[in-house]
Write a structure and sequence with these properties.
Elements (H helix, E strand, L loop, with lengths): L6 E2 L1 H4 L11 E7 L6 H18 L5 E7 L4 H14 L4 E4 L3 H14 L3 E3 L16 E3 L4 H6 L1 H7 L4 E7 L2 H17 L2 E8 L8 H9 L4 E4 L3 H13 L8 E4 L8 H4 L7 E4 L8 H13 L7 H18 L5 H8 L3 E4 L2 E5 L6 E13 L2 E13 L9
Parallel strand pairs: 2-3, 2-4, 4-5, 5-6, 7-8, 7-9, 9-10, 10-11
Antiparallel strand pairs: 1-3, 11-14, 12-13, 13-14, 14-15
Bound molecules: P-hydroxybenzoic acid.
């Protein structure tokens, strides 16, 4: 990434024309700008910048960006650099649950606030929660938990599951499976595919087809989601085994790359750009004006809301690590996705969820909201804040 490691004064480029001063709040942004989740990282960054433009006017901020490559080992080295060398006051970013898990002890020990803008790792707002870690995206359990009953209510009784073999894949499937089974459904089989390595899903799709399942429930994201959704369709599975899952599968960020293969896939997310509210319509219009008409995705909104929360904290007088962490954990506002609150018991986000179907309107793929599920608060899961 071109500007990795370079100090960027957003005060100059985005806000007022001031030069960063010694009093500037230093923000370390740690995102994948390369690798399997690169598109996600860039999208979160775009949302974060838009949020600062809108909510951070006049704030004295310095932004230092680093490329995590979605790799746990590399991310630890980059986080240490941001905290120990750049001396950032707050960190934001993190796309992969594996990276979030790897960073937790360092962030907690260094007492640096980390505002997560994607990674759904349950434990960092559960058993391994920290007063310094808050989340502006979702937890893996939260996203999938209500889908067990919802999928059962669609008449599905037997499900085969498919997901990448790392923390997020396991947590998302576990959460869905628990509630699907509790509703009366059966998980007839499942596979975890090698993460960042699987290009050919054929053997797994053949196993799914032979399993006798009524449907497949799945989580994939980024490049893997594009490959998976296309191969699911080209294998001819979609007609007889409908595809359900966590909505990153058909994210508006890359649904056009999936094309018609994505039509009819029914999934769940904390944000879709078709939510009809004045705040969301205005956010979508602003984002589109900066991105050649493209609508924002769930990744953009996490960055945008994190920038909103950080701006509020600083405007309320928080400038150092401890006061920023404290202020962030009390944040609450209405944003593009609806009402957003940080749960003081876990520092995880509380938010509504949207079940959506990818449909074609004219020649455009879009998200048709099928149901809004209630705001869900995670159990404390061993967290005591
Ligand atoms: C995760 O690793 O937690 C993760 C990654 C990509 C997503 C969602 C969750 O789209």
């Amino acid at each position: 990434m071109k500007n990795a490691g370079i100090l960027i004064t957003i005060a100059a480029s985005l806000l007022s024309a001031s030069i960063a001063s010694a009093d500037a709040v230093k923000v370390g942004v740690l995102l994948p700008y390369s690798g399997v989740y690169a598109a996600l990282g860039k999208e979160i960054d775009a949302g974060f910048n838009l949020g600062l433009e809108e909510f951070g006017k006049g704030l004295d901020l310095e932004i230092v960006r680093e490329d995590s490559e979605a790799d746990p080992g590399k991310s630890i080295a980059k986080a240490r650099k941001l905290v120990l060398q750049d001396k950032v006051d707050v960190m934001t970013g993190i796309v992969s649950s594996a990276v979030a898990g790897a960073l937790r002890d360092f962030v907690h020990g260094a007492k640096v606030p980390l505002m997560i803008t994607n990674a759904g790792n349950n434990s960092v707002t559960g058993a391994k929660c920290s007063p310094y870690i808050s989340r502006f995206s979702f937890s893996n359990g939260q996203i999938n938990r209500l889908m067990g009953q919802w999928v059962y209510d669609q008449g599905v009784r037997k499900v085969f599951t498919l997901a990448p073999d790392y923390t997020a894949g396991h947590e998302m499937i576990d959460s869905f499976a628990a509630t699907f089974v509790a509703a009366g459904g059966e998980i007839v089989g499942g596979e975890y595919t090698p993460f960042r390595k699987t290009k050919d899903f054929g053997p797994y799709l053949a196993t799914a087809k032979a399993s006798g399942a009524d449907a497949v429930y799945s989580f994939y994201a980024g490049g893997e989601a594009i490959t998976f959704v296309k191969q699911y369709d080209s294998f001819g599975l979609k007609a007889n085994m409908p595809l359900f899952g966590a909505g990153f599968l058909t994210s508006p960020l890359y649904v056009n790359a999936e094309g018609d293969a994505s039509i009819g896939v029914k999934t769940v997310l904390h944000y879709v750009p078709t939510i009809d509210s004045a705040i969301n319509n205005s956010f979508v219009a602003k984002f589109q004006s900066q991105h050649e008409g493209r609508s924002p995705s769930e990744f953009a909104v996490a960055g945008y809301d994190a920038a909103h929360a950080l701006s509020l904290a600083i405007q309320q007088g928080a400038t150092d690590r401890a006061s920023i962490a404290e202020s962030i954990s009390k944040v609450s506002f209405t944003g593009p996705r609806g009402e957003v609150t940080i749960d003081p018991k876990t520092n995880n986000i509380v938010q509504p969820l949207y079940v959506y179907e990818t449909v074609k309107k004219g020649d455009k793929l879009t998200q048709k909201v099928l149901a809004q599920l209630p705001n869900t608060q995670d159990d404390v899961n061993g967290c005591s804040l």
